[in-house]
Amino acid sequence: MNNHIQHVGIIPQLLLALPFVLAFVMYILAVIFSSRRYKPWPMYRTVCWTLGILLAIIAVAGPLANRAHVSFTAHMFGHLLLGMLAPLLLALAAPITLVLRMLSIPLARKLSKVLKSWPSRVFTNPIVTSFLNIGGLWLLYTTNLYSLMHESTLLHLIVHLHVFLAGYLFTVSMIYIDPTPHRVSFLYRALVFVIALAGHGILSKYIYAQPPKGVPLEEAEFGGMLMYYGGDIIDIILIFILCFHWFRATRPRIEGVHSKVTHD
């Protein structure tokens, strides 16, 4: 794979990094604008957005991105940043809430219609997002797609964009930070999440035993372990948030029942 680094130079990296840079600038401008009209936007959400954008850029441009073309371990570390940690941080930044707060009422209504549309229903369904996310990774690492992406700049761009978008859609389908018209139950999300975690874990073990084409066995073993344990750490955060939301949603009813029993 060493001779493939020349096929993915500075231009593809800039193309991948540019959307994140623009998203960062637009978010900061939206924070400034909306904070002047309403109460200040929570600082921790801006911090989450900044860190998420930074990690995504690190994964697609710079030393780590260069190293990922010749090292499967570096590639897998970039995958964890781009497809899991960055999407989680960006979701916690509540970008849709910020946009709705900044827009005029007519524009906010138009955006709400988009969020309520059938494509939004499809692409925020946990089963669909799990298929796009975990299924996409199985396709990447169990076929020739991984080796081909190092030979084709276009394929390289498509794969990285898919990894991020699929990771983001999966995250926002599991934890509801922004307004989500097409909500599903906590039990439904939890069951799908467990299945997705199993698929991710099995894939990491498969990589450990059956390296993708062109990947040395030692790197595949380390990359598989990194995918397994690194993914678990990020998934634990997702699980905590999902369970916390579940607890908070059921607590008022529990307290209401307790108060009624005590009163009676």
Description:
By secondary structure, this protein is mainly alpha-helical. The protein is built from 12 helices and no strands. Helix 4 runs parallel beside helix 12 (217-263). The longest helix has 47 residues, at 217-263. The protein is globular and about 55 Å long. Mean pLDDT is 89; it is low at 1-7 and 260-264.
Question: What is the topological layout?
Answer:
Layout (H helix, E strand, L loop, with lengths): L9 H28 L5 H18 L2 H6 L3 H21 L2 H8 L2 H11 L2 H6 L2 H17 L2 H4 L4 H22 L11 H24 L7 H47 L1
Helix pairs in contact: 1-2, 1-5, 2-4, 4-10, 4-12, 5-6, 8-10, 8-11, 11-12
The ordered H/E elements are: HHHHHHHHHHHH
Radius of gyration: 20 Å
Q: Spans of 5+ residues with little confidence (pLDDT < 50)?
A: 1-7, 260-264
Q: First CA to last CA: what distance?
A: 73 Å
Query: DSSP helix count?
Result: 12
Oligomer: single chain
The biggest beta sheet is recorded as:
none
